[in-house]
Write a structure and sequence with these properties.
Length: 426
């Protein structure tokens, strides 16, 4: 009984339980959403949605200046000093307002150029970018609110916001896709962000009164100096990653077909469902806890906890998913997505290496090691680009997931080599 009590009271258990419940809701809503998308717009529509998601993700990261981790660390370290945290949060708030509005204008006036990149010659879909532009400020503020709440260790509130967001996004997507097919699907990606803003804003403004931000408007860009290391690291990844995935989808479309590109995107959606277990734990528990540690031994203890407690469970999950792939495709997709079954093996292998790399990679943020981060990330992006360029003409969509697996295997080896001294000493 004492052992069981210790396990239940363990912070990792609490975080993983909240994460798991959120993931269950995400999976259920994601399953229904994927089924609707697969049935109504097919592989080609899913490929276009993938490119729009990538652009939206890029804009989100640029709009937050890549300082999410920096904001989290600052709030986590100074959480006991409410005045200091409030002043910091107010200054970042107004900076993000200015940046997000600037990006919205850029997206509006650059509609044709950006539309050609993600939709090629499908001019009839360019209108979706206007929705992204108008709702971008709300999405960026939502991300900011989440980082602040996470830095304050409000895991339960963050999980509640996620759950509310998943449910509302599902309802919006279902309605718009049902009545407007692919046009509705593209628009739904943006509209959901406004409701996320309402949910996260509710909890955020309970912690930081609304009048605090308008009583005295302060725009102080100098505060970004202490966040520069995080901004450089996050922006580099946030810009390159979506562009590479857009390249891969477009390259598959060129070398094989847009349907094959849709199969690849479907595999990424499925991967995103189960990988949330890892990414949520790392973002909401391991990163904040590692930031709070004062010694290398404590950091190593957290890393070992990840490998000994989390990875085995994740590995078991991957085995289950692989042997259930036909059932998963039937459940989530449609008959014209049957080729996705050929992508599972290498995608799962890559996700395992990615999960193992993740706990080592966050050390760059904790240590503010910009140089090491840029070097290792550059190696992984170069490997991903080259292998995808070589494998896709040979193996089609399978070549894309093969390059994914090879990339994260090499990336893991690079991280092990980079942190070899710490690993050996442990």
């Amino acid at each position: 009984m004492n052992i069981l009590k210790k396990i239940v009271q363990n912070q990792l258990f609490k975080a993983s339980s909240l994460s798991s419940f959120s993931i269950i809701i995400r999976l259920v809503t994601g399953f229904v959403s994927s089924k609707v998308i697969a049935h109504f717009i097919g592989p080609s529509g899913m490929a276009l949605m993938g490119n729009l998601r990538s652009i939206s993700s890029l804009l989100d990261s640029i709009g937050t200046l890549g300082v999410q981790s920096g904001v989290l660390q600052n709030v986590a370290k100074n959480h006991s000093d409410k005045i200091l945290v409030a002043d910091f949060v107010r200054k970042i708030f107004w900076i993000l307002i200015i940046v997000s509005l600037s990006l919205s204008l850029l997206l509006i006036f650059g509609n044709s150029f950006i539309g050609k990149i993600i939709f090629n010659q499908n001019y009839k879909y360019y209108f979706a970018l206007y929705f992204v532009a108008f709702l971008l400020p709300f999405q960026i503020l939502h991300l900011f609110f989440i980082m602040v709440l996470n830095g304050l260790s409000y895991y339960k509130k963050v999980t509640q916001i996620s759950i509310y967001g998943y449910l509302v996004s599902l309802l919006i997507s279902f309605f718009l896709i049902w009545f407007y097919s692919i046009n509705g699907a593209l628009v739904s990606l943006s509209i959901s962000s406004f409701f996320l803003f309402l949910f996260s804003g509710y909890f955020f403004f309970k912690e930081f009164p609304f009048h605090l931000f308008f009583k005295e408007i302060i725009v102080d860009f100098s505060i970004l100096k202490e966040l520069v290391p995080f901004g450089i690291m996050s922006l580099f990844t946030a810009i390159v990653t979506p562009l590479i995935f857009i390249f891969i989808r477009n390259y598959i479309t060129k070398e094989v077909s847009i349907e094959a590109s849709g199969w690849f995107e479907a595999m990424q959606r499925i991967s995103g469902f189960y990988f949330m277990f890892i990414s949520t734990l790392v973002s909401f528990y391991f990163l904040p806890e590692m930031i709070k540690t004062n010694s290398e031994n404590e950091k190593l203890s957290l890393t070992k906890k990840f490998f000994y407690q989390v990875i085995p469970l994740f590995l078991l999950m991957l085995f289950t998913i692989y042997f259930s792939k036909d059932f998963i495709i039937k459940l989530l997709l449609a008959p014209n997505f049957s080729q996705v079954r050929n992508l599972f093996f290498w995608q799962l292998i890559g996700d395992l290496f990615k999960a193992m790399s993740l706990i080592l990679g966050i050390r760059f943020y904790v240590l503010k090691d910009v140089k090491g981060y840029l070097i290792t990330e550059s190696i992984s992006f170069i490997v991903f680009f080259i292998t995808a360029f070589l494998f896709i003409p040979l193996f089609g969509a399978t070549g894309a997931v093969l390059s994914y697996a090879v990339t994260y295997f090499i990336y893991l080896l690079v991280l092990i080599f980079y942190f070899r001294k710490v690993i050996v000493e442990s």
